[in-house]
Design brief:
Murein hydrolase transporter LrgA; 6 helices; hydrolase activity; transmembrane helix
Amino acid sequence: MPEAFLTLLLFQFLGVVAQRALALPIPGPVIGMFLLAGMLLWRKARQKNAPDGEVAADAPAASPALSALARSLIACLGLLFVPAGVGLVTELPVLGVNAVPIVASLFGSTVLGLLVTAFVMHRATHDASAPERVSDADGQVL
């Protein structure tokens, strides 16, 4: 498990270094996360293209320790909402003063998001047949 944690810290460090060196507007840990994901995808693709004798085709790209650490961190993900909730409570006077613009922007962005999604779905399925006309393949899924 310590090597898996060091792996996460290494990729976070690489992301921070890349962010500062290239003056990117993206947080370093996010860049590190993408670098880690890219490395895992590269390892998975390399395993698929490896000769039969080298490595099992169904071997995971991530080590078991890294997978276990990721599962443990995801299980604790809800704790990250505690600081945001405390921040909301401590800023209640500011939120109360600005309640109308906040509610208007939340409502407006929700409606705008729904309209854009409906427009994109309409354009994407414009030439497709209606769902009720699509064969259900005798109830088989894939």
